[in-house]
Amino acid sequence: MGWEVKALRAGRVQLTDSFVVMTKGEAFLLGSQISPLDTVSTHYVVEKTRSRKLLLHKKELAKINQALTQKGQTCVCTALYWKGHLVKAKVAIAQGKKQHDKRDTEKQRDWQRDKARIVRENVKQ
Predict the structure, then answer these.
(1) Alpha-carbon gap, residue 55 to 58, rounded angstroms
(2) What does each C-alpha distance from 30 to 40, 67, 97 come to in angstroms?
(3) Would you put residue 26 in left (φ > 0), alpha (ψ -120 to 50) or beta?
(4) Burial readout 75-102 (b: 16 or more C-beta within 10 A, e: otherwise)
(5) What is the dihedral of CA 17, 23, 28, 29, to 10 degrees?
(6) Chain segment 100-121, per-residue pLDDT in tens
(7) Hey, how many other C-beta atoms are within 10 angstroms of the C-beta on 57?
(8) Residue 64 CB-density burial (10 A; 0-12 exposed, 13-18 middle, 19+ buried)
(9) End-to-end CA distance of the chain
(10) In DSSP terms, which residues pair with 77 in a beta bridge?
(11) Most C-beta atoms within 10 A of its C-beta, which of 11, 12, 20, 86?
């Protein structure tokens, strides 16, 4: 839609929690948020998080479909960029964290929080 293109040019897109799903042999981007500009016309029905169809080659669709059928793998959108007048999406196959990786991340986060608390208390004294 026109307002989405203008918002993309202004950099008003958020890709966190976005992912790609395959439906009937077609790829769709879900979870991406494109915030409309303040000047968008009021007669548009603004859906920030609607699904957007990705135009891909057959080989790319087959590769994504094969990866999604395997356990623990998903397809995520990592970036949006301009190529001429088209908006391109960079997608990647990702694998979820294992349980031991999650525990290590949680330990690191707790240590960083404790370290910041100790530094903050020493600065006050």
Answers:
(1) 10
(2) 22, 17, 21
(3) beta
(4) bbbeebeeeeeeeebebeeeeeeeeeee
(5) 0
(6) 778 888 899 999 999 999 888 8
(7) 8
(8) buried
(9) 57
(10) 91
(11) 20
pLDDT tens profile 24-46: 989 998 888 888 877 766 666 66
Exposure pattern of 19-38 as b/e (b: 16+ CB <10 Å)?
bbeeeeeebebebbebebee
Catalogue all structural domains in the chain, each as residue range(s) with its CATH number. 2-96 (2.40.280.10)
